[in-house]
């Protein structure tokens, strides 16, 4: 039940993202999160199941959360870069309160979506899920040309409490030129 709410909520964000992206020249194709349906089968031992469109091939992982809790991007294809841009867009659009963490699929059709949020009660979640990923994202995300095309703001890594780390300054200085391409 929960995974339906998460995937279908992410799908709604993706529809808004797609509308904005299509309005911008040169953006091109946009990922689509397919709907996940909850079905009730009263005569079955397990009365609830999920159902979704057959994607017609093996799923590829584009953006995933590893077991150690780190966010990983799998490759540099156009699809992967646009999934990363979608993550950035959702993060910025929700003021850093929601992040789509996992996206996999076949071509432009995405499934098995996961989120991180610090919003209690978001989509019926009893507690927030993986809020540490929200803190990691600004440092982990590498803006790409599609972030620039949409005019997304470069994300500033969350500053640690206390003294400034010299490595933080170097890291942001290295990523600045990428946006200017």
TrEMBL record:
The keyword Disulfide bond applies. Residues 172-181 have a biased composition (Polar residues). InterPro entries: a-kinase_dom (IPR004166), Kinase-like_dom_sf (IPR011009). Transmembrane segments: none annotated. Keywords: Disulfide bond, Immunoglobulin domain, Kinase, Serine/threonine-protein kinase, Transferase. One of its GO terms (molecular function) is ATP binding. Residues 1-155 form the Alpha-type protein kinase domain. GO terms for biological process: cardiac muscle cell development. This is Alpha-protein kinase 3.
């Amino acid at each position: 039940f929960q995974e339906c709410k998460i995937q279908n909520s992410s799908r709604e964000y993706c529809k808004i993202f797609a509308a904005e992206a299509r309005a911008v020249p040169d953006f091109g194709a946009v990922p689509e999160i397919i709907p996940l349906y909850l079905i009730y089968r009263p005569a079955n031992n397990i009365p609830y199941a999920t159902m979704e469109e057959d994607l017609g091939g093996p799923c590829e992982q584009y953006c995933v959360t590893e077991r150690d809790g780190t966010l990983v991007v799998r490759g540099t294809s156009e699809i992967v870069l646009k999934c990363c841009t979608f993550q950035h867009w959702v993060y910025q659009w929700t003021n850093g309160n929601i992040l789509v963490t996992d996206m996999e699929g076949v071509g432009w059709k995405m499934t098995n979506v996961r989120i991180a949020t610090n919003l209690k009660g978001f989509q019926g979640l009893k507690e927030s899920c993986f809020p540490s990923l929200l803190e990691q994202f600004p440092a982990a995300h590498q803006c790409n040309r599609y972030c620039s095309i949409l005019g997304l703001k470069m994300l500033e890594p969350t500053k640690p409490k206390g003294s400034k780390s010299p490595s933080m300054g170097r890291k942001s200085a290295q990523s600045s030129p990428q946006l200017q391409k």
